[in-house]
Amino acid sequence: MRMYDLIIKKRNGEQLTKEEINYFIDGYTKGIIPDYQVSSLMMAIYFKKMNKRETADLTMAMVNSGDILDLSMVEGIKVDKHSTGGVGDTTSLVLTPMVAALGIPVAKMSGRGLGHTGGTIDKLESFKGFSVEISKEKFLENVNKNKLAIMAQTKDLAPADKKLYALRDVTGTVENISLISSSIMSKKIAAGADAIVLDVKVGDGAFMKTYEDAKALAEAMVDIGESVNRNTVAVISDMDQPLGYAIGNALEVKEAIDTLKGNGPKDLLELCLTIGSYMVVLSQKAKDTSEARELLMKTIGDGSALAKFKQFIVSQGGDFDYELPKAKYITEVKSNKEGYVNKINSEKIGLIAMELGAGRKVKDDVIDLAVGIVLNKKRGDWVLKGETIAYIHGNDEGKIEKAKRDVLENYLIEKEKKNELPLIYNIIQK
Questions:
Q1: Which helix (H) or strand (E) holds 280?
Q2: 250-287 burial, b for 16+ CB within 10 Å, e for fewer?
Q3: Could you give phi then psi for residue 365, rounded to 5 degrees?
Q4: Could you tell me if 410 and 349 are in contact, meaning their C-beta atoms sit under 8 angstroms apart?
Q5: Residue 398: exposed, middle, or buried by beta-carbon count in 10 A (0-12, 13-18, 19+)?
Q6: pLDDT (tens digit, 9 = 90+) per residue, 26-79?
Q7: ∠23-26-32 over CA atoms, to 5°?
Q8: Annotated active-site positions, please?
Q9: 6/17 Cα distance (integer angstroms)
Q10: Do β-strands 79-83 and 195-202 pair in parallel, antiparallel, or remain unpaired?
Q11: Which terminal Cβ of the chain has fewer Cβ within 10 Å, N or C?
């Protein structure tokens, strides 16, 4: 078998066999096949695409390129959750303790943020002493004992995906449904869960800007999951404005705790209940999503979800009662006109928070956990001239002034109210 022949075959629009896909993934992971040939194949796939079978074979080849986390010692059906990334997306912090409080094991691997999207691990590190750098043994022990643990993805988990994504990132071959879906699902399957619920974001602050693209990605990932015997559901949710009100690590943690106390933003709670209800159903702890939703709401009402969150933080070295990092300056952003908020440029707001220090431009940037933006007005709200639309939390006065101007520019305030966009667009399942 020659890599040259695979490139020509895909360039001509033909299907690659399972053996051919395994050959190139194995060879590339081991460093036998060079970057330039894999770049060429990625470009051929980008233009000629892959069918469902090829996409599933590519996913499993990447899964098998490294370790597969064995969760068999964990009792019960293990359900994982993944978001395609957004601004102010604090769902994992709220949702996982709610689900775990019902006795459902949640063994989650998470990543750090880059660009305008925040990372779950960065947010959790707002707690002094908290660490995701735990051994697999400790991870499994915590899941069995507490029903919840989160760790950083190990370098041995789907190594082919890491290598392939880095190459795609610099060769203009990221935006292909088969390549995106296989990248996401290879990590989820290698992480060992029995069932997977996906939160596929759509809109200005999401990777997928249109509903059609989000739906195509959701369907591809559900197809992959089902083809390898993982019950998989995808929720397509709005990211045309930030989720909740807080953007920034410690600020989002505070909002998550408020939500677990029953005082959080309605959209954040609603999304958590929607995704969570499918996790509960897939775990067979409820017969339908209505029953599951009631069970989840009960964990907030009786305080068990908050108690579970605290237990999780403490078990991974965090000081739950230590005061979260706070910014030196809190500055109001006041509206320069009156009218309805018809649009908040979600991606731009995320980038403004990043410029304040809440996110990374490159992988090695150090994050300021205290800084960020807290919105005071969201889509559909009426605003008076001079009324506060947001608060900038910053530690650098120079950056704050620019952030104020930028936030104001990225609020569209008009006299006529536009039609409201849905929070949940669709549920994709077999």
A1: helix 266-282
A2: bbbbbbbbbbbeeebbebbbebbbbbbbbbbbbbebbe
A3: -60, 145
A4: yes
A5: exposed
A6: 999 999 999 999 999 999 999 999 999 999 999 999 999 999 888 988 888 999
A7: 95
A8: 82, 161, 168, 183, 187
A9: 10
A10: parallel
A11: C
Helix (H, G, I), strand (E, B) or coil at 154: coil
Q: Tell me the residue length of the chain.
A: 430
User: Closest by alpha carbon to 38, among 133, 129, 173?
Assistant: 173
Which pairing describes strands 411-414 and 339-344: parallel, antiparallel, or unpaired? antiparallel
Please give the Cα distance from 245 to 187 (Å, whole number). 30
Q: 């392939």: which residue's tokens? A: 164
| Calpha distance 269→277 (Å, rounded) | 12
Please name every residue paired with 341 in a beta bridge, in sequence order, or none if there are none.
413
| Other CB atoms within 10 Å distance of the CB of residue 288 | 10
**Side chain identity, residue 56:** A
Q: Which two tokens stand for residue 136?
A: 């697999």
For 239-278, what is each residue's pLDDT tens digit? Answer: 999 999 999 999 999 999 999 999 999 999 999 999 999 9
Compute and round to an integer the Cα radius of gyration of the chain: 22
Reading phi first (left if > 0) and then psi (alpha if -120 to 50, else beta), residue 262 is in left
Alpha-carbon gap, residue 288 to 348, rounded angstroms = 38
HSE-CB at 52 with a 13 A cutoff on CA atoms is 12
Strands 372-375 and 388-394: antiparallel
Specify the 3-state DSSP secondary structure of 238.
Answer: strand
